[in-house]
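job 3f2a | input accepted
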Amino acid sequence: MTGKVTALQIKPGEALSEKTQAYFDLCQEKLGMVPNVLKAYSFDETKLRAFTDMYNELMLAESGLTKLEREMIAVTVSSVNHCFYCLAAHGAAVRELSGDPILGEMMVMNYRAADLSSRQRAMLDFAVKLTQTPAEIVEADRQLLRDAGFGDRDIWDISSVAAFFNMTNRVAAASDMRPNDEYHSRAR
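job 3f2a | predicted structure (188 res):
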């Protein structure tokens, strides 16, 4: 890759605040890179902070969903939306969290072909319906999740993660955001 983050002529922030630089340094330390999505948002630290706050709350905070389940939602939604950035980044996360590179690849291609629990399948079926036909979500869809063992707070979290990745997929597509090369070789 040529170092291109997006196709837009918006320069990433050159003079980052101390807090943002510390966050980027932490990413470099823990991930071995600063994800391109963060670089893309760094032109406006207020937007970057809003993005990272929401991401960290949805993906890392306490939830009835495991981190793997949240990453599975990210990949499934991104697969429906054909989001190259998120499929590379979150496909790698599924491979890492599951310890199963085949699962990660199946999730990217077609979660229905993966060996999933009935709980996971219900969760991902709901995320797909919310992505493709949100106006068709009805009480019966929520009840299917309850029957699979999810509480109403879990349903909120499934919905929030799916909605967040629908938004980020669209920003990534509109800007031709490119994933860091490192994602492609992780946990293979």
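job 3f2a | The chain has a mean pLDDT of 94.
job 3f2a | closed
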